Amino acid sequence: MKSIQELKALATPPDACKEVAKAVLILKQGEKKNHAWPNAQKMLNNPAKFIAEVKEFDGDNIDEWRLTMLEPLLREPWFNFETMKGKSLAAAYLCSWLVNVVDYNRIYKKVKPLQEAAAGAQARADAKGAELAIVMEKVRQV
Fold it and tell me: Where are the chain's structural domains?
């Protein structure tokens, strides 16, 4: 929480920190246009609330337009924890969170249809098993 307050208090943060804040504005806030530092400071205004919102973020359901807007930022060579921790510890952790949430979402979107197909197959197997039990009971009676 202290590092979030320190980041928020920067009058003119390094450009990379501004870009990380922009990425958070896009992903978490759904901000399409106002990526200015004052808007990021507003988002960080209550560090405890901000951290709670980050922890509760729904990584399963991310709009495609957000991912598209984040793509160029995530490809930057400096957009990683190690590079960012030299500029701001809060920005480094936010950078790591962004990368991990986007990676999780990509994996989730591939796995979810497989899980749904498996659940459907299991439901069909259960139904066929119940039908088989009825037939077996009739065969036993004969």
Answer: 2-105
Q: Is 107 exposed, middle or buried (0-12, 13-18, 19+ CB in 10 A)?
A: exposed
Rounded alpha-carbon distances, angstroms, from residue 135 to 36, 67, 121, 130, 132: 69, 52, 21, 9, 5
CB contact at 8 A, 70 and 27: yes
Q: Is the pLDDT of residue 51 over 80?
A: yes
Percent of the chain with pLDDT over 90: 70
Domain 2-105 has CATH 3.20.20.150: no
Question: pLDDT digits over 100-123, tens only?
Answer: 999 999 999 988 777 777 878 888
